[in-house]
Write a structure and sequence with these properties.
The protein starts with a strand and ends with a strand. α7 runs parallel beside α10. Strands 3, 4, 5, 6, 7, 8 and 9 form a seven-stranded mixed β-sheet that branches. The chain is of the alpha+beta class.
Length: 350
């Protein structure tokens, strides 16, 4: 739909132009403008990186990588073309690649971005402040990846693909950027075309359904904190997974073996991921991901694989599971009985 201006009691159409005619480039111009004013295409988003390509054997780069207020990663792809090209397919690949990022890795990526842009801030503090978090929460971090496609226009094939993908649970948005020229000035008409107004009610119903499902999961999640006493040391306000990490860490530090831990909890499958060689945390993470067969949660996120969280024993690397459910307290009791010298005592603190 054209844009008009009122001039001398007349309605005068404003001339439509293109980014190509105005010699505006994708990276050097559009991307440079949007990374500091991303709210025009993706409100409540913090840009974490640009031209992001931190993966092996792939030259492709995410134009802009951000995070929203719900701690979801946001992949933002830009095109100056009139049809959007195949940006939806690129964005889906990128979303899959970034979905495995941990909070710790993202801090490293963002710190590099801040340095490149001469912004003298601490990346971790910047992200936590944006999310209004006091500390990182891996359980809530990057549970979903949103996609924003911003282009001069979109082909019918692209919009059809996006709507179909959204029906299957993706969160993909198309934002059209129409350039105009008026009295020597360039204007930009920015509008969200997907979700389209005609489908708004349908989209709301889908979102409501998903929200109810999320609320149901939240209601059944046990967020009890525990004070843990092990061998004379106290670890207050630990989550279930944190409690288990502290207990197993202390057992191994005091001469216990992974096999003894596994024997004490025979029903716990995948208690350790055992890797050959003494790997760094990043190497361990990548090695675990190579064996990932898919699933709702990336395999590497199901293990403690951050700095200081892996164990090197007899030339091997042991990575402890962080997936503990209704039998966590039973596991604590079994480990306390198996290693009485450590005097393992836990009690609820919340």
């Amino acid at each position: 739909m054209p844009i008009y201006r009122i001039h001398n009691d007349e309605i005068v159409p404003i001339q439509r132009t293109t980014f190509v005619e105005q010699r505006l480039r994708e990276r050097q111009d559009l991307q440079a403008l949007l990374k500091t004013q991303i709210y025009v295409v993706s409100p409540e988003t913090l840009i974490l990186a640009e031209e992001f390509s931190d993966w092996e054997d792939c030259r492709r780069r995410v134009d802009l990588l951000g995070i929203d207020k719900e701690a979801n990663l946001v992949v933002i792809e830009l095109k100056r073309t009139e049809d959007g090209g195949h940006m939806e397919l690129q964005a889906v690949r990128y979303a899959a690649m970034v979905s495995t990022l941990t909070f710790e890795k993202l801090v490293e990526i963002h710190q590099s971005y801040l340095g490149d842009n001469d912004i003298k801030e601490d990346a971790a503090e910047r992200i936590l402040e944006f999310l209004d978090w006091s500390e990182p929460d891996e359980e809530q971090f990057a549970q979903e990846v949103r996609i924003v496609l911003a282009s001069a226009d979109f082909s019918k094939e692209l919009t059809t693909s996006v709507m179909w993908l959204n029906d299957f649970g993706l969160d993909m948005r198309c934002v059209r950027m129409h350039p105009y020229v008026s009295d020597g000035q360039m204007l930009l008409d920015i509008q969200t075309v997907i979700p389209i107004p005609e489908a708004a009610d349908y989209q709301v119903r889908i979102r409501d359904k998903k929200q109810k499902e999320r609320e149901s999961r939240q209601a059944t999640r046990d967020r009890t904190k525990y004070d843990v006493h092990i061998d004379g040391e106290n670890f207050p306000d630990e989550s279930k997974r944190g409690m288990m990490f502290q207990i197993v860490s202390k057992i191994l530090a005091k001469g216990g073996t992974p096999q003894q831990v596994m024997t004490a909890i025979p029903w716990k499958r995948g208690l350790f991921e055992i890797l050959e060689g003494e790997l760094t945390s990043e190497q361990a993470y990548q090695t675990i991901m190579e064996s990932d067969k898919g699933g709702k949660i990336p395999k590497a996120k199901r293990y403690f694989s951050g700095n200081g969280e892996i164990f090197h024993i007899d030339g091997k690397t042991y990575v402890l599971s962080n997936q503990w459910g209704s039998r966590t307290l039973e596991a604590v009791g079994l480990l306390a009985d198996a290693f009485p010298v450590l005097n393992i005592v836990t009690k609820s603190s919340s």
